[in-house]
Design a protein that fits this description.
Elements lengths: L1 H16 L1 E3 L20 E3 L20 E3 L20 E3 L19 E5 H16 L5 E5 L3
Parallel strand pairs: 1-2, 2-3, 3-4, 4-5, 5-6
């Protein structure tokens, strides 16, 4: 019962503020209630157990910040990479990315990775990253 009340409180707060934060909650999937809030500017789902993001993330057209640190993601859906207002994407943690295309993002992007995932990510993503203007990397220490 507590988890449902907590999710409801987080969702109601997101409707008021445009910010959804549910970290360290052991989430294995993205709560469906999140997709009812179309005006989100910031989503922080760090330190959960997410293995994938649903394509519905593409509906967050106002999204500027997406923090997914410390999950178990291996890729991002194409729809995330088409969020033209996205400015900050943080993927630190022991996540190994296989395929993500960033060539649709129009605004400058601040991307955070860690040393664990940087080598594989950069090797596969170099052509797509070159298309993103003013890309900045922050490489964090391995966890």
């Amino acid at each position: 019962m507590g988890n449902k009340q907590s999710l409801k409180a987080h969702t109601e707060n997101a409707q008021r503020t445009g910010v959804f934060q549910m970290t360290n909650s052991k989430l294995q999937e993205v709560p469906q209630a999140l997709f009812a809030v179309k005006t989100l500017r910031s989503i922080d789902l760090s330190n959960n157990k997410l293995k994938e993001l649903p394509p519905a993330f593409g509906t967050f057209t106002a999204l500027r910040t997406l923090l997914l640190n410390g999950n178990q993601l291996t890729s991002l859906p194409e729809e995330v990479c088409q969020l033209v207002k996205l400015e900050t994407l943080s993927l630190a943690g022991k996540q190994a990315f296989h395929s993500t295309r960033f060539n649709s993002i129009e605004s400058p992007l601040y991307l955070t990775l860690n040393k664990h995932s940087l080598t594989k990510f950069a090797r596969r993503q170099q052509p797509q990253l070159a298309a993103v203007g003013l890309l900045q990397f922050e490489v964090t220490a391995d966890d």
